[in-house]
Amino acid sequence: MSSLEVSEEVRQYLKTPTFDNWQWEDAEIMVLLQVMYTDLDFISTFNIELDVLQQFLYEVYRRYNNIPFHNFKHCFCVTQMMYGLIWLIDLRSKIDSIDLLIMLTSAVCHDLDHTGYNNAYQINARTELALRYNDISPLENHHCAVAFEILEKSESNIFRNLPTEQYKRIREGIIKCILATDMTRHTEILNKFKAILPVFDFSNKDHRDVLMMIMIKVSDISNEARPMDVAEPWLDCLLQEFFNQSDMEKLEGLPVTPFMDRDKVTKPSSQTGFIRFVLFPLFIELANLFPCLEVRTFLEDLTCLELRSPPCVSQKITARLRTFVSQSDSSIKRPCSIIKGLVHPKMKIMSLMTHPHVVPNL
Ligand SMILES: [Zn+2]
């Protein structure tokens, strides 16, 4: 697998938050992830061998489950949004490369081995994960532990050439970032960020730590900030996973989370509240630090829409929201094939997975 033969056009497109993940197969996505490590200069700066990076990404791929939402494609989307934001706000000129490496790798690993059932289910059903982590962010703790399981193996440890001190800093950073994706900590983290914003200082480690947590949170819930034809299928995937959980909760006699209940939720209703009360407030604070993100204009649009219309205007609202990541050209279509003959030997099996009659033996 090599990223060298990925065209310049694709490399530039990959840096834009309007990137369409649905145009790419998993084997190609692996190469695109490699391009991100290459184009942020991580390969040379941190002396990462290409075959180790390839093995790391392959192990990551294997440890994402085939579930409707929290799968390998979600891992890619979150990582790609992180990558796009790094370029959009020119973060390379503001913080150390090692922090960028932490942020990108955290995004890659942030939902490893997700089972499709959220923390509330884990805790109510007293699953193995809830028991192991004493009900404290069971999933996020698990994602992080799986990440370091992969990194413990020398052949897939992309940090193996780094001095112990740097490894320690990276480990601490990745743990912080992945644990920050637990939505029950949303308000706590957002309030921390708001408090430091007026005096934000890129040379202050505590400030940078909070920014890194905010960045992975923004990336994690950024589907609604993507073009409509990219975001729409993701909402279906999310609701499918929610409904699977609530069906299971009903079967097992566990409390059913209302926003996951197929009898209570509709597509628009599931999104308006989330966009207004979770996504907007988060994006707005990030835009306060990086004015080029221009979130304010569409907050006003949103308010106008809500005043004039009943709650079921989410289509229009989400359309507005997508202007958040404007300016890039989303019309680029995937080239016929960027990576013929460049994939990991085992990846050939993966491309067969799309064929209904082939059962891969991975
Ligand atoms: Zn996620």
TrEMBL record:
Annotated family: Belongs to the cyclic nucleotide phosphodiesterase family. PDE9 subfamily.
One Pfam family here: PDEase_I
Keyword Magnesium: no
Gene Ontology MF: a single term: metal ion binding
Residues noted as binding Zn(2+) 1 in the record, renumbered to the chain: H74, H110, D111, D220
Name recorded for this polypeptide: High affinity cGMP-specific 3',5'-cyclic phosphodiesterase 9A
Gene Ontology BP, a term: signal transduction
Residue positions binding Zn(2+) 2: D111
Described function: Specifically hydrolyzes the second messenger cGMP, which is a key regulator of many important physiological processes. Highly specific: compared to other members of the cyclic nucleotide phosphodiesterase family, has the highest affinity and selectivity for cGMP. Specifically regulates natriuretic-peptide-dependent cGMP signaling in heart, acting as a regulator of cardiac hypertrophy in myocytes and muscle. Does not regulate nitric oxide-dependent cGMP in heart.
